[in-house]
Amino acid sequence: MLCLLSASGVLCRPAWAGAQIEEQLADSVRTALSSAVANRAPPIPEFADIESRLDYLRWLGAMSERLKKKKSDWQTRKEFLQTVWYESRRAGLDTALVLGLIQVESNFRKFAVSGVGARGYMQVMPFWTRQLGDGDAGKLFHLQTNLRFGCVILRHYLDRENGDLFLGLGRYNGSRGKPAYPQAVLAARQLWEFRPASTPLEAHPTRTSPS
């Protein structure tokens, strides 16, 4: 069960990602996760040209409006969306897909915890932190760490399934081959799709903020 604190008490619903299976990660994946833990500031994207930056700002504005009911503070929304944008593209994932997954997993609650211990926005299981050697599950409540773990793990599963979204999402949920979870995420993704006015050149998510 995923449990969230509310004014009326504790609300629970079935956990999605709690059935993930622990497995050994490749060295490149471990390196990606380790670097996220070391960085504390939200990443700041850079762009190859002005039009790409303008398209990003249009996306940011549109997504901020959609997210306002979940996160009322503008600066909080900005840092969250900026980090989702950065980490999804860094992992080669569709940003709308990642936002849809976050909606299904945690409903955008930073401190969501499932009954089996999955944590944060992307409901990352604590056993993944053992891949770094320290096993500190508390780090999974840090914004970029949680999103880096979630995106890298999802990318890992998609690669294992040769890019098959249905099977890759099933692995993320621990229900490979069953339709409920992939269908829920793909339906949520539609709520976060964005069509810019122009087609941007490739934007490179480069960290410029201090670690």
Whole-number mean pLDDT: 81
The side-by-side strand order for the widest beta sheet comes to: 2-1-3
Strand percentage lies at 5-15%
User: How would a textbook summarize the main sheet?
Assistant: 3 strands, antiparallel
CATH topology of the domain at 49-192: Lysozyme
- What's the shape? globular
Counting DSSP H or I runs of 4 or more residues, the number of helices is 7
How many individual β-strands? 3
**CA radius of gyration:** 16 Å
H/E element order: EEHHHHEHHH
Helical proportion?
A: 40-55%
Helix/strand-derived category reads mainly alpha
Low-pLDDT runs of 5+ residues are 1-15, 199-204, 206-211
CATH class (first level) name of the domain at 49-192:
Mainly Alpha
User: Roughly how many Å apart are the termini?
Assistant: 35 Å
CATH arch. level architecture of the domain at 49-192:
Orthogonal Bundle
